[in-house]
C-alpha cells in the first residue's frame, strides 16, 4: 500500500504534539566565526578556511584593500571566489599578487553574525584580533540574491488514495525525479519524498549530516510557473532516523499525475531568496585530465601532464606507485610543475614500440593507500585514461600475381616494418577487405609477425581489389587503440586484374559461320578481333556493322587473301591499303599475313604503313578440321595471360570451329578469364 506523503508528515506532527515536545525558537543572531586562516596556493590564488557556525547556511567573505573592505567576488578587481561550506578558494585574474587579509560572517534564515576578526596566513604570527580597526567600505547587502544548490525535474505520480495527492516517493516508486541528490558541505543529501498532500506540502531529505541547513524550496506548478517559495523557517521539521522531514501546512501546489514540474533548493540569506533559474555551483568534484599527450612515441621516454580541478594533497611517490597505471610501459617519475599541486608532470618509459595505455585511479577512501584527495578530503571522481600510440608501422603488398587466371585461388603477401601482435581474426575483420573476390585465409608466414599471406578467391572475370585499411575510431581518449592496427601509417591497396585471352578470327566475314561465332561471344561477354579480307568485308557490310556494334574490332587480312611475301612493293601497298579504305573508320593499325607467311620485308613494309603485324601463339589449326573436341582442347591447353588464339570464321566449312569455340569458352569463362580484342 502506498502511504500519502502528507499523511506521513501529519502523523509526524501529531507525534510531536502527543509527546509534548517543544520546538525551540531560532536565536536572533548567529555566532561570529573565528578569524579565517589563509593558505597560499599560487601567487594569485589562496584558500581561506574558517570554522562552521551552527545555523549558518552561507558565508560572506570580504577582502581588505587600501580603499577598505571589498565584498567577494568583485568583478572590477577581477577577483573570483568559490565557496565550499566553511572554505573558499579566492583567485585573482588581473596582474599583481593577491592580498591575504580576509574576514568572514555567517548567514542563515534571515540572520547574520558579526564580522569575524581578520585572518592570518598559515605559519605567520597571529594578528591583533581585539579591535577591528579596518573600516567597512562595502557592507554586505542582505537583499542580494542567493544561488540554488540543487534543481531537479519531477514527473509527478499519484502518491495516495486521496484525490489531489500527487508527487514523488523513492520508497514507494511513485513519480520520477532527476537528479535526486546534491552535495553541501561535503555531505550528500538525497530527496526521498516530495509530494502535494491535502493538508500541505511535504519534503523529506536523507542525509548523514548532524544538522540540516535552513533553505528555501522553490516549487513550480505543472505549467512551469506560479512558483511557491517555501522556507524551512516556516515549516514543521520532523527528525527521522535517516534525515529530516519538512511539512508546510495549508500549502497547495497545482500538480497533476504525469505532469512535469521543477524543484530547486536555495540556501537562505537575508530577505531575498533564490529564483529557480539561478544555480550555485555545489561542491565541485575533484577531477583529473591528461594534457600535452603526444600522439605517438618513438620508443624512447616521453612525458605528459595531469591537471586536477583542485590542488591535491598527494605525494609524488604515491601517485607514481599507487595511482598511475601504465600498460606496455613504466612510470619513471611524477612531480608537480612549478610547485603547483594541481598540475603534475609524468615521465614514462615505453616497452619497445608497443602503444602505451595510461590511466589514473583513486582508492575509494581518502584514508586508503592509492587515494587522490584534496586537503578537504574530496576524492577523485573520474578515472582518466589515454593511449599513446607506438611508432607508425609501414605496410606493403609483395609477391602479388600480375593477374588471376585459371587457378581458383591465388596468394598475396603483406610485409610490415615490424611484427604485428594482432590476431588473424582481428586483421581480417578490422583491416582487410576485397571486392571482386573473397579472402579465404590470412596467416603468418613461418610464424613471422611481419610477413602475412592472404589467400584470395576470384568471384568473376573482373579485377580483384584488395585493401588493407584499418580505418578505426576508438574515441577521443583512444582508450581502445592498443591494437597494433592503429599504428599502420597509411592504407594500402592492390589490384589483381583477370588474365586476358585475345581471340582472333581470320578469313571472314562469312554469312554462315560469323553470326554463330558472334552469338557465342555475346553469350560469354567476350570481345575479339576479326582479321577480315577487304573483298568479304565489301560483300557483307551488315556483318561488318554487327561485328563493330557488338564491341569487337576489325583488322587487315589483305584484299583477297594473297601471300604478302610474294608481292612487289606496289602490289603489297595495293592489297593492304585497299582493305584499309574498305574498313574505313573501323580499321585498326593491325595486319595478319595470309597463310602465316611473312618475311623481314613484310614486317618492314607494314611498319612503313603504320601497321603492326599480329601473329598468334595458340594455333589450334582449326582449318585442318581435326574435330571440335581437339580444337577446344588446343584452345584450353594454350590458355594464358595475353595469349593470342588464331581461329577462322571464313575460307571453308567452319562448323567444327564453332563447336570447339563453344566448348572452350564454357570452360575458360568458369576459370574467370576475360576475353579482349588484340587490336583496338
Q: Main β-sheet: number of strands, strand sense, barrel status?
A: 7 strands, antiparallel
Low-confidence stretches: 1-24, 123-146, 269-283
Portion in strands: 35-45%
Number of helical stretches of at least 4 residues: 10
Number of β-strand runs? 43
User: What is the general shape?
Assistant: elongated
What is the radius of gyration? 46 Å
N/C terminus separation: 91 Å
Average of pLDDT:
82
* Multimerization status: single chain
Please give the share of residues in helix: 10-25%
Structural class: alpha+beta
Characterize this entry briefly:
It is built from 10 helices and 43 strands.
Strand and helix layout:
Elements lengths: L4 H14 L18 E6 L2 E5 L8 E8 L2 E4 L7 E5 L3 E6 L9 E7 L2 E2 L7 E2 L26 E8 L1 E2 L7 E4 L6 E3 L2 E4 L2 E11 L2 E7 L8 E5 L8 E4 L4 E5 L2 E7 L10 E8 L20 E4 L10 E7 L7 H8 E4 L1 E9 L2 E11 L5 E5 L24 E4 L6 E4 L4 E2 L5 E7 L7 H7 L1 E4 L1 E9 L2 E11 L5 E5 L23 E7 L1 E9 L5 H10 L5 E4 L1 H6 L1 H9 L3 E4 L12 H15 L3 E5 L8 H9 L3 E2 L14 H10 L5 E6 L6 H16 L3 E2 L5
Parallel strand pairs: 1-9, 30-36, 37-38, 37-42, 37-43, 38-39, 39-40, 40-41
Antiparallel strand pairs: 1-2, 2-6, 3-4, 3-7, 5-6, 7-8, 10-13, 10-21, 11-12, 12-15, 14-15, 15-16, 16-20, 17-18, 17-21, 19-20, 22-23, 23-26, 24-27, 25-26, 27-28, 29-31, 31-34, 32-35, 33-34, 35-36
Helix pairs in contact: 4-10, 9-10
List keywords for this structure.
alpha+beta, seven-stranded antiparallel β-sheet, seven-stranded parallel β-sheet, 10 helices, 35% strand, elongated, disordered N terminus
Amino acid at each position: 500500500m502506498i502511504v500519502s506523503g502528507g499523511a506521513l508528515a501529519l502523523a509526524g506532527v501529531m507525534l510531536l504534539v502527543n509527546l509534548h515536545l517543544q520546538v525551540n525558537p531560532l536565536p536572533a543572531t548567529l555566532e561570529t566565526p573565528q578569524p579565517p586562516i589563509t593558505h597560499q596556493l599560487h601567487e594569485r590564488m589562496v584558500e581561506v578556511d574558517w570554522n562552521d557556525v551552527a545555523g549558518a547556511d552561507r558565508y560572506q567573505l570580504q577582502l581588505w584593500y587600501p580603499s577598505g573592505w571589498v565584498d567577494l567576488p568583485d568583478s572590477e578587481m577581477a577577483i573570483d571566489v568559490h565557496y565550499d561550506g566553511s572554505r573558499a578558494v579566492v583567485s585573482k585574474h588581473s596582474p599583481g599578487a593577491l592580498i591575504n587579509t580576509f574576514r568572514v560572517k555567517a548567514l542563515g534564515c534571515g540572520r547574520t553574525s558579526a564580522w569575524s576578526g581578520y585572518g592570518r596566513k598559515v605559519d605567520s604570527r597571529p594578528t591583533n584580533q581585539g579591535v577591528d580597526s579596518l573600516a567597512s567600505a562595502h557592507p554586505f547587502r542582505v537583499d542580494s540574491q542567493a544561488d540554488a544548490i540543487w534543481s531537479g525535474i519531477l514527473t509527478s505520480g499519484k502518491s495516495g488514495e486521496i484525490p489531489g495527492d500527487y508527487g514523488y516517493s523513492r520508497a514507494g516508486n511513485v513519480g520520477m525525479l532527476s537528479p535526486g541528490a546534491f552535495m553541501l558541505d561535503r555531505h550528500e543529501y538525497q530527496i526521498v519524498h516530495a509530494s502535494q498532500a491535502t493538508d500541505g506540502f511535504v519534503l523529506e531529505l536523507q542525509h548523514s549530516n548532524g544538522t540540516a541547513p535552513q533553505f528555501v524550496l522553490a516549487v513550480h506548478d505543472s505549467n512551469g510557473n506560479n512558483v511557491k517559495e517555501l522556507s524551512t523557517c516556516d515549516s514543521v521539521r520532523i527528525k527521522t532516523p535517516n534525515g529530516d522531514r519538512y511539512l508546510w501546512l495549508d500549502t497547495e501546489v497545482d500538480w497533476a499525475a504525469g505532469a512535469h514540474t521543477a524543484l530547486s533548493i536555495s540556501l537562505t540569506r537575508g530577505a531575498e531568496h533564490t529564483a529557480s533559474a539561478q544555480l550555485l555551483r555545489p561542491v565541485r568534484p575533484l577531477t583529473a585530465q591528461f594534457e600535452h599527450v603526444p600522439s605517438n612515441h618513438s620508443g624512447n621516454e616521453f612525458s605528459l601532464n595531469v591537471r586536477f580541478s583542485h590542488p591535491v594533497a598527494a605525494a609524488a611517490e604515491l601517485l607514481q606507485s599507487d595511482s598511475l597505471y601504465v600498460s606496455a610501459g613504466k612510470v619513471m617519475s611524477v612531480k608537480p610543475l612549478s610547485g603547483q599541486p594541481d598540475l603534475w608532470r609524468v615521465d614514462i618509459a615505453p616497452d619497445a614500440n608497443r602503444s602505451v595505455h595510461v590511466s589514473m585511479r583513486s582508492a575509494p577512501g581518502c584514508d586508503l593507500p592509492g587515494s587522490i584527495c584534496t586537503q578537504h578530503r574530496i576524492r577523485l571522481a573520474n578515472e582518466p585514461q589515454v593511449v599513446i600510440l607506438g611508432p607508425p608501422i609501414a605496410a606493403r603488398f609483395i609477391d602479388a600475381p600480375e593477374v588471376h587466371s585459371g587457378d581458383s585461388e591465388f596468394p598475396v603477401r603483406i610485409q610490415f616494418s615490424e611484427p604485428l601482435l594482432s590476431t588473424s581474426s582481428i586483421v581480417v575483420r578490422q583491416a582487410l577487405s576485397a571486392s571482386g573476390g573473397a579472402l579465404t585465409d590470412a596467416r603468418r608466414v613461418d610464424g613471422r609477425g611481419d610477413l602475412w599471406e592472404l589467400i584470395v578467391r576470384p568471384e568473376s572475370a573482373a579485377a580483384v581489389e584488395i585493401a588493407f585499411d584499418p580505418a578505426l575510431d576508438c574515441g577521443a581518449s583512444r582508450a581502445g587503440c592498443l591494437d597494433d592496427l592503429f599504428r599502420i601509417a597509411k592504407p594500402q591497396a592492390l589490384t589483381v586484374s583477370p588474365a586476358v585471352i585475345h581471340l582472333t578470327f581470320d578469313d571472314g566475314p562469312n554469312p554462315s559461320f560469323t553470326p554463330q561465332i558472334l552469338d557465342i561471344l555475346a553469350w560469354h561477354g567476350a570481345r575479339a578481333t576479326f582479321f577480315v579480307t577487304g573483298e568479304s568485308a565489301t560483300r557483307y557490310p551488315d556483318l561488318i556493322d554487327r561485328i563493330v556494334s557488338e564491341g569487337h574490332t576489325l583488322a587487315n587480312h589483305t584484299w583477297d587473301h594473297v601471300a604478302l611475301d610474294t608481292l612487289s612493293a606496289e602490289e603489297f601497298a595495293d592489297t593492304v591499303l585497299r582493305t584499309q579504305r574498305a574498313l574505313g573508320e573501323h580499321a585498326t593499325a593491325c595486319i595478319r599475313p595470309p597463310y602465316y607467311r611473312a618475311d623481314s620485308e613484310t614486317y618492314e613494309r607494314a611498319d612503313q604503313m603504320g601497321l603492326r603485324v599480329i601473329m598468334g601463339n595458340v594455333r589450334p589449326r582449326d582449318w585442318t578440321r581435326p574435330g571440335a573436341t581437339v580444337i577446344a582442347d588446343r584452345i584450353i591447353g594454350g590458355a594464358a595471360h595475353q595469349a593470342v588464339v588464331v581461329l577462322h570464321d571464313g575460307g571453308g566449312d567452319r562448323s567444327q570451329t564453332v563447336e570447339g569455340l563453344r566448348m572452350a569458352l564454357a570452360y575458360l569463362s568458369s576459370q574467370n578469364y576475360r576475353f579482349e580484342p588484340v587490336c583496338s
